[in-house]
Design brief:
Number of strands: 2
Keywords: Hydrolase, Protease
Strand order of the largest sheet: 1-2
Number of domains: 1
Distance between the termini: 14 Å
InterPro entries: Metalloenz_LuxS/M16 (IPR011249)
Organism: uncultured Segetibacter sp
CATH class: Alpha Beta
Protein name: Zinc protease
Mean pLDDT: 92
GO molecular function: metal ion binding; peptidase activity
CATH topology: Cytochrome Bc1 Complex, Chain A, domain 1
Order of helices and strands: EEHHHHH
């Protein structure tokens, strides 16, 4: 398995959480099982503080990277405008990343990470 990662695909009316990787055919099914296993861990165990700090720093760094240059800034504002959001959304997002607790993340995982609500797409 190479470079497994996840991201949100945001649209005007809805969003999707995407998990993506490159995996050989021989480990494809095992990789998918591991994704679901990690979802269950998020639902059943609060993240430890070290992991939470790592994710916070990564997310803040990603946002800063997304604002590196005029085209990236315009793209972010375009998304805000299309979704009827203003600059407070940006600041609220940063604040949420900085302050959300492991227990709140666990509650969100329990609400949104139902395996039966996910689709799988495998390209060979």
């Amino acid at each position: 398995t190479y470079g497994i990662h996840s991201y949100f695909e945001n649209h005007v009316q809805d969003s999707a959480w995407m998990v993506s990787t490159e995996a050989g055919r021989d480990v494809c099914e095992a990789t998918i099982r591991e994704v679901y296993k990690e979802m269950e861990i998020l639902k059943n165990e609060p993240a430890d503080e070290e992991e939470l700090l790592l994710v916070r720093n990564y997310m803040i760094g990603s946002i800063l990277g997304d604002l590196d240059g005029p085209f990236q800034i315009i793209n972010r504002w375009k998304n805000y405008i299309l979704n009827g959001l203003d600059e407070s959304y940006f600041y609220n997002s940063i604040n949420t990343i900085k302050t959300i607790s492991a227990e709140e993340i666990q509650q969100l995982a329990q609400k949104y990470l139902a395996a039966e609500d996910f689709y799988e797409l495998v390209v060979v």
